[in-house]
UniProtKB/TrEMBL annotation:
Keywords: Metal-binding, Zinc, Zinc-finger. The keyword Zinc-finger applies. Transmembrane segments: none annotated. GO terms for molecular function: ubiquitin protein ligase activity; zinc ion binding. GO terms for cellular component: cytoplasm. Residues 184-225 form the RING-type domain. This is RING-type E3 ubiquitin transferase. The lineage of its organism: Eukaryota, Viridiplantae, Streptophyta, Embryophyta, Tracheophyta.
Length: 231
């Protein structure tokens, strides 16, 4: 997979404005579309997966239940559990929390939103090459250039809605091609308030020390394989 873009937006026109006695619970109505395209021919759709579901809001907003709900929604897609857990679940939960708290949605029994996932895939020969690199111990990964590492955007992580920290939090307000992960995928530890973090040019965020150590060995982003400059 060469790149991944996730877009989530609310469909206000289809939202229920009046209470409906026939609906026993407040609901999220979620339209999901996953589309795979070729990196060589972006206009060509290789695979499409669509699913429309209604789920109880209280269940979806529970961290104990959201993982199982999202896995059930994409069960027929065939993705790995790791991809669902690290990419789809955090972004959907983040947006659900945001949408549920919007003043415009107060009193609404049904909040309808759409999530679109666009996956750009590599040609078969590029995929084979990447597999060979991962399986061959003799492969020598190129470290990123010192100047590109020094140019990484550094910040402090804060898990709040403070406007001063919008570079890390604006994805919660409207996800437009970015991710709302709350864990560093290098060390697998969750971010804590005050942690020093760094943003890659591809917008993936890691602990600063983790990504520096990674880039000193490999110039590829751990998540999307974005290529940093090399010497």
């Amino acid at each position: 997979m060469a790149s991944l873009n996730i877009t989530i937006r609310q469909n206000h026109e289809s939202c229920s404005e009046r209470p409906d006695s026939k609906i026993p619970f407040n609901l999220f109505h979620i339209d999901l579309e996953i589309r795979c395209i070729s990196s060589l021919h972006p206009e060509t759709t290789l695979e499409t997966y669509n699913r429309s579901v209604a789920v109880r809001r209280d269940m979806f907003l529970s961290e104990e239940n959201v993982r199982d709900i999202v896995h059930s929604i994409v069960a027929d897609w065939g993705s790995t559990p790791e991809f669902v857990d690290t990419v789809i679940v955090p972004d959907m939960l983040s947006y659900a929390l945001y949408a549920n708290g919007l003043p415009v949605n107060l009193g609404r029994q049904v909040i309808k939103w759409r999530i679109e996932i666009l996956i750009e895939t590599c040609p078969d020969d590029e995929i084979d090459e990447l597999i060979d690199e991962s399986l061959t111990s003799s492969v020598k990964f190129k470290p990123a250039s010192k100047s590109s590492i020094e140019a990484l955007k550094r910040d402090r992580y804060w898990d709040d809605e403070d406007e001063h920290h919008l570079p890390l939090k604006k994805r919660r307000k409207l996800v437009e091609g970015s991710s709302s992960r709350k864990a560093c995928t290098v060390c697998l530890d969750e971010f804590s308030d005050g942690d020093e973090v760094a943003s890659m040019p591809c917008n993936h965020v890691y602990h600063y020390n983790c990504i520096v150590e990674w880039l000193e060995t490999s110039h590829l982003c751990p998540l999307c394989r974005y290529q940093m400059p090399v010497d």
